[in-house]
Write a structure and sequence with these properties.
By secondary structure, the chain is an alpha+beta fold. The protein has 20 helices and 25 strands.
Length: 767
């Protein structure tokens, strides 16, 4: 009984340690020595930076820029700004203002760059985490570094970009147009996609990661959270940061450090000073300081590699790494060991096909049933709580409770299934099935997702446990518990990481991971009596988790509901509409819109740029207000070689934030120049621009100084060119022509969409 208790405690402690090792356990305060990073000192800067939304082009953006420049100059650095029009990969056109500074090194080697951005997301995001946290991490890290009297071997370039939120425009401006870009050898980029949790290290490279990982391990950050599975997935997903531009356009490699938990705060007014997790900010500091010291002295000419490494973090050992070329040999050895131990078990009459078959039935049922139950359970939850769909992030305020729910219900199912297997003499028979599944998974990842090949490490310890079960009549339960530690220490954080990183729609992945982990813990769990009681206990806990989620499902001031409202004028027909992106109307939107009068297709033919391609859900006719329309002037109409060229000048007559231009996909554009910047041709052989446009969208111009937009366009001579212009301002709530009630305390503006806006649609036709 005592050994069983010790074994269970080892398992619980391993799970606890797997999460505890991800983050620092204390916050550095104002009394921290000046030569060390202090989170509390960094927070002094954050309080200034995160007073209000400071998106590209607004007055707060300029104030924040002046503050950052001032703080860099207090450190003795000479600063400069870089400003210019740039069109991003997503055809978002704007005029960012980057902040730059440089610390001269002792040699003429490649420079180390510290990178982040200072703009917040339009229009309501405060930007404390994204990426005020990055700004203050660099400011405080540089201060501590200089206070220590360090003289770098390599130049250190500070680049704090603008317009990252609009399409990485500031990074594109620097990489493609600043002379310092050619000097950069490595980038450390600090980012956020939430307001808490551990900061994950993600590599950006055009080649292999082997040398980068070698140097990362040598720098020895205290709390590394890095694994090559996340690296492999990241390379396949359409996620981009400023560092992506450095890799893509400049062939410059580097590290991203980004935290992704509390995703519900991302790009909202709740991304504020108060909600940024202090431990998370401390974690960013624990990355910057050792890496700054290491890479300011390292040879940055040798960071490129053609080889990739598998890597993962584990308590006590920090980061483990080994070459991709070891993957197949390690897998083959594991397969050979598996078959050798199974054959040995049969010869020793400790294994038999009947009990192994029972194990396969039990394990397969646990795996499939748990995955399906959680998958369809989440669909049912969305039906019960339709308001969850208003959170476009796909991670609800009670999302962590739902992760607990999926884990607990899966454990309940697994214990219940194995409680039915009472006549199995040797637990090794039951362990064969999980090991078989693990081998199959390791084979698949070795072929398709090599970054996950460290899954073979827990497999090895599982094989050792199988050998112990076969070899010993009464195996030491504490030893078996110790053999479960690798799978628990390595794999447990993934149970949380996947739904946090990719959304609650993949909760079923957490359930599957729990069953996979449970399978390698069978040498201990199989020895526990009263498995039905364990199952019932976890079922009770899962019910408690569901009730907790239910009682925290409603929107409150701390968990506010995102909602949206815009006023749109079709100047061609002289009609106006209220519109919303909400699927569930509340007391705020019901002041203007109801579901009985709906013409939501009016503007959705041209979906405004948003992260999730969200369109209007409901619209309703509204009184026509006297909103100043833009002035359109067409000039320089010339014909050369069967091509027609002309200039369109669009001058706003009100304070606007964006101009979005659409054209039917049949329209052909041979050339287009925006405020002197020529749009890059997608296909030089076809000699056209915007051919691959989505939703008919050509580009969006985010205004910065209320200047006019000048379009120089070249089209086929016989084409009747029609453009739809949408001019938008974020002043619906402040405009004197409207009486818009304030949102209630439990509401916030919905992120990722054009919100609180006055939109004017105007058609430009050239025959």
């Amino acid at each position: 009984m005592f050994k069983k208790l010790i074994a269970v405690l080892i398992i619980c402690a391993s799970v606890y340690l797997s999460f505890e090792a991800l983050l620092p356990n204390k916050i550095s305060n104002l009394d921290t020595p000046l030569t060390q990073f202090s989170t509390d000192r960094a927070l002094v800067h954050l309080a200034e930076i995160s007073k209000a939304p400071h998106y590209t082009g607004n007055k707060e953006n300029e104030r924040v820029r002046r503050y950052i420049i001032s703080e860099l100059e207090k450190l003795g650095l000479t600063t400069q700004t870089q400003e210019g029009y740039i069109n991003s990969k997503w055809n978002n056109f704007t005029k960012p203002v980057n902040i730059l500074a440089r610390i001269k090194g002792e040699s003429n080697s490649k420079a180390l760059m510290l990178l982040t951005h200072y703009d917040s997301n339009p229009h309501s995001s405060i930007g404390a985490s994204d990426a005020g946290s990055g700004v203050v991490t660099i400011l405080e890290g540089l201060r501590a570094y200089l206070a220590e009297g360090n003289t770098p071997k390599n130049d250190i370039i500070v680049c704090i970009t603008d317009a990252e939120e609009l399409g990485l425009n500031g990074a594109e401006l620097f990489v493609n147009k600043h002379p310092w870009a050619k000097d950069v050898g490595l980038v450390l980029n600090f980012e956020a996609r939430g307001s808490g949790g551990p900061s994950y290290m993600l590599i950006e490279t055009n080649g292999g990661n082997a040398n980068l990982m070698k140097e990362f391990v040598a720098a020895n950050p205290q709390y590394p959270v890095a694994n090559s599975l996340a690296y492999s997935i990241y390379k396949m997903l359409p996620n981009d940061t400023d560092l992506t531009v450095f890799r893509r356009d400049g062939d410059i490699e580097g590290f991203n450090f980004a935290f992704i938990d509390d995703h519900f705060d991302y790009h909202t007014v709740k991304d504020n000073y108060q909600r940024l997790d202090r431990t998370t900010l401390e974690h960013q500091g624990t990355y910057l300081m050792p890496l700054l010291k290491h890479f300011s002295q390292a040879n940055l000419n040798t960071v490129k590699s053609t080889e990739d490494n598998v890597y993962f973090n584990i308590p006590f050992f920090k980061t483990i790494t080994y070459p991709f070329k070891w993957i197949m040999p390690m897998l083959i050895v594991a397969i050979l060991l598996f078959f050798s131990i199974v054959v040995y078990g049969f010869r020793q009459k400790q294994l038999n096909t009947k009990d192994i078959g029972k194990g396969f039935v039990a394990y397969s049922f646990s795996l499939i049933f748990s995955g399906l139950l959680v998958f369809f359970g989440w669909q049912l939850i969305l039906i019960i709580y339709p308001e969850y769909t208003e959170i476009l992030h796909d991670f609800t305020y009670n999302g962590h409770t739902y992760i607990w729910l999926s884990v607990l219900i899966t454990l309940s199912i697994s214990f219940w299934v194995y409680s039915k297997l009472k006549k199995v003499n040797n637990l090794g028979n039951l362990l064969v099935a999980p090991l078989t599944f693990w081998i199959i998974i390791c084979c698949l990842v070795a072929l398709k997702l090599k970054g996950a090949s460290f899954f073979v490490i827990p497999l090895y310890f599982g094989l050792l446990a199988l050998f112990v079960l076969v070899k010993q009549y009464k195996p030491n339960l504490v030893l078996l518990a110790i053999l479960t530690m690798p799978v628990l220490l390595i794999m447990s954080p993934f149970v949380k990481m996947f739904p946090v990183g990719l959304g609650l729609k993949i909760l079923f992945v957490s359930a599957i991971l729990v069953v996979l982990i449970f399978g390698l813990c069978l040498p201990v769990f199989g020895h526990l009596k009263h498995k039905t009681r364990w199952s019932f206990s976890f079922l009770i806990l899962s019910i408690i988790a569901f009730l907790s989620a239910h009682f925290n499902s409603s929107f409150t001031e701390d968990r506010p509901k995102p909602n949206s409202l815009v006023y749109a004028i079709d100047s061609d027909t002289k009609t106006a509409y209220w519109a919303t992106y909400d699927n569930n109307l509340d007391s705020y939107t019901k002041n203007f819109i109801d579901t009985t009068s709906n013409n939501n297709t009016l503007f959705n033919a041209n979906t405004f740029g948003s992260k999730y391609g969200t369109g209007f859900s409901f619209t309703k006719k509204a009184p026509l207000k006297n909103i100043a329309e833009p002035t359109i002037q067409i000039s320089k109409d010339t014909i050369i070689d069967k091509l027609r060229s002309y200039t369109i000048c669009i001058t706003p007559n009100r304070d606007i934030q964006r101009l979005e231009v659409f054209a039917d996909s049949t329209m052909v554009f041979k050339k287009m120049v925006l405020n002197g910047v020529e749009i890059t041709k997608e296909n030089k052989e076809d000699n056209t621009v915007f051919k691959q446009r989505k939703n008919n969208r050509l580009f969006c111009y985010y205004t910065t100084d209320q200047n006019y937009l000048e379009l120089d366009i070249t089209v086929p001579i016989d084409q009747k060119t029609t453009l739809q212009l949408y001019e938008a301002s974020n002043d619906l709530l402040e405009n004197n022509l409207f009486t818009i009630p304030k949102r209630l305390s439990w509401m916030i503006p919905k992120p990722f969409v054009l919100n609180d806006a006055i939109i004017i649609k105007k058609t430009i036709t050239i025959n």
